[in-house]
Specification:
The chain is about 55% helix and about 15% strand. It has about 475 residues and is α+β, with helices and mostly antiparallel strands. It is rod-shaped.
């Protein structure tokens, strides 16, 4: 009973039975009267009244004396007069206003509504001059004929109903199958998705509503799959990061532990030199932990920016001055060039200085003795750009996309010796992007590098 096809079949069958039942009721109620009217009107034609009555009127100019001539006619006509045998009928003639002129017994009375209903107009020269009707007697024969007729109609109706029920059942089956098949497929697919098969899709078929449900299902699985992929990527990233951090912490810790162990075992003397080595490693550890904390906070968007709108030039000049000593120590020519008339930029001065410092100290660190480092501040279509160019070793093309990744270091051991945690550029990127800017690098091995970042002038810079 709960199955869709059973319900649809029953509904169709019920409609068929109801329809046929209604036809039967109306036919039985209306057909008796209709049948009588039909018989009466056909009698008028059969008796030739449609010709004789106009002729009579045309001859006499009125209906006067009609009754006598009709009585004569009634006397000899084929079944004229009330109850005069099989198929007989009472002839009634009225004038144009509906007043009876024959039979004489009812002369002057008005035609009843029923009589008027079955009457036929008598027309002479295009004018209706009277009305004629033949009243059929409710004889047994008539009732029997009508009853026979009706019972035949009922028979046909019963057959038609049976056929309609059969057709309804078939239609119910076909339609139910059309609806339930895609629904069944949807249910199966949903169960598969529930156990993790997110690539499951269904055909968008069937009626519009069912196809819509299928489309919504497919959309849902696409979104689920994307969310799952993102979750997996985030999970991989997190795992990698934990592994990276563990690795980065282990190296200085191993050095510290090894040195201390050697001192304890009496292999190394307990002198200032050894203590300095251990101290340098702890300083590196401490810097690593500080950088990590800053990076994770920046990535989580938890460090608020102190944005003010000001020129970038003075920040760059200040940073260059602070690095002059370091440059001089390596005999590196360091110069800063700031273009005229640059627009003000919304920025966090401390974070921006941190980014410039990072790029400058990297440049100085990786540029060999006697090299050259220049900083330029220029305007560009989307804002102001700072470029730090050096005459260092440059970066291989395959490494370029990775220099801003956290913990990425070129020639790891060497870079680490130089004090790099591999986090400086990752942090710089976080800050620049937090201020709505972009950061990048152009470099070729042997031709030096140009690290740059740009900040937008638009007042909608993030902050
Ligand atoms: P680190 O603390 O190791 O310098 P960064 O994130 O600042 O970490 O830099 C990542 C890596 O990018 C460095 O290890 C280095 O290999 C490379 N790099 C950065 N700046 C330069 C530069 N100016 N010239 C050549 N290589 C550079």
């Amino acid at each position: 009973m709960n199955r869709l096809w059973v319900r649809l079949t029953l509904a169709f069958a019920l409609m068929a039975v109801l329809g046929a039942g209604m036809v039967a009721v109306f036919a039985n109620r209306g057909l008796g009267a209709q049948f009588q009217r039909y018989l009466g009107q056909s009698r008028i034609v059969e008796f030739g009244l449609q010709e004789t009555l106009p002729e009579y009127y045309a001859l006499h100019g009125s209906w006067a004396g009609l009754d006598e001539s009709l009585v004569v006619a009634r006397g000899r006509g084929p079944g004229f007069g009330a109850g005069q045998g099989r198929g007989g009928g009472e002839i009634i003639v009225a004038d144009a206003e509906g007043r009876i002129v024959s039979p004489a017994s009812r002369a002057g009375a008005a035609l009843s509504a029923a009589e008027r209903d079955i009457s036929v107009p008598i027309v002479v020269e295009g004018r209706t001059v009277g009305l004629a009707a033949v009243l059929m007697p409710s004889t047994l024969q008539f009732s029997a004929a009508a009853a026979l007729f009706l019972s035949e109609i009922n028979q046909v109706l019963i057959q038609a109903t049976a056929l309609a029920v059969l057709a309804g059942g078939l239609a119910g089956l076909v339609i139910a199958r059309g609806i339930s098949r895609p629904l069944g497929e949807l249910a199966t697919a949903a169960r598969r998705v529930a156990v993790g098969h997110l690539s499951e899709r269904v055909k968008e078929q069937g009626s519009e509503e069912v196809a819509n449900v299928a489309a919504a299902f497919n959309e849902m699985t696409v979104n689920l799959q994307q969310a799952d992929a993102q979750r997996r990527a985030a999970e991989t990233l997190r795992r990698n990061m934990v592994a990276d951090i563990a690795h980065e912490l282990r190296t200085p810790l191993t050095v510290i532990q090894g040195n201390l162990q050697a001192i304890l075992d009496g292999v190394y003397p307990l002198d200032l030199n050894e203590i300095e080595t251990v101290h340098a490693e702890t300083a590196m550890l401490s810097r690593l932990v500080t950088d990590l904390r800053e990076l994770s906070l920046a990535e989580a968007g938890q460090l608020a920016l102190n944005t003010t709108t000001r020129p970038l030039g003075p920040l760059v000049e200040g940073a260059a001055q602070r690095h002059a000593e370091m440059a001089a120590a390596k005999a590196i020519a360091l110069d800063a060039e700031i273009a005229e008339g640059l627009p003000l930029v919304p920025l966090d001065p401390d974070r921006t200085t941190q980014v410039i410092n990072n790029l400058l100290s990297n440049a100085l660190r990786y540029t060999p003795l006697g090299g050259r480092v220049s900083v330029a501040v220029t305007g560009n279509p989307d804002g102001v750009r700072v470029t730090v160019r050096d005459s260092g070793p440059g970066i291989a093309a395959e490494d370029l996309p990775r220099v801003f990744d956290r913990f990425w270091r070129g020639e790891k051991s060497r870079a680490r010796e130089k004090g790099g945690s591999g986090l400086g550029l990752a942090i710089a990127r976080q800050w620049v992007e937090a201020m709505g800017g972009r950061i990048g690098v152009e470099s070729r091995p042997g031709e030096g590098s140009a690290f740059w970042f740009s900040l937008p002038v638009a007042s909608d810079a993030k902050g």
